[in-house]
Design a protein that fits this description.
107 residues; 4% helix; mainly beta; five-stranded antiparallel sheet; three-stranded antiparallel sheet; 1 helix
Length: 107
């Protein structure tokens, strides 16, 4: 489960077949959409159907009929936080990603 202030990495940035960019679409993403491999901070979380969550990300917003909605949590994994006592070598290592079960690929 995701929580506000979690750091997450986008693992599915394939929005080619999503509603974004379709003329007449009711969805609007004024600051763009998540990009695969990019790390984001979770601003807020909404519980959705089928056990997924809607993630509201710092700096990115998406709207449906003018109302803000979150990005589907199945597109993201938590970034593990490094311990404060770890060596400088370990702190500079690539972030590790926790595993989360995928249930669907929605917006």
């Amino acid at each position: 489960m995701f929580q506000p202030h979690d750091k997450v990495v986008c693992i599915n940035g394939d929005f080619r077949f999503s509603v974004f960019g379709i003329p007449g679409s009711r969805f609007h993403a004024p600051h763009g959409i998540p990009r695969e491999g990019e790390v984001y901070s979770v601003r807020a979380v909404m519980h959705a159907e089928a056990g997924t969550q809607g993630l509201y990300l710092v700096g990115l917003s998406t709207f449906l009929d003018g109302e803000e909605t979150g990005f589907n949590s199945t597109r993201f994994r938590k970034v593990e936080q490094q311990g404060a006592s770890e060596s400088a070598e370990n702190r500079d290592a690539k972030p590790q990603v926790a595993s989360v079960n995928l249930t669907s690929h929605e917006v």
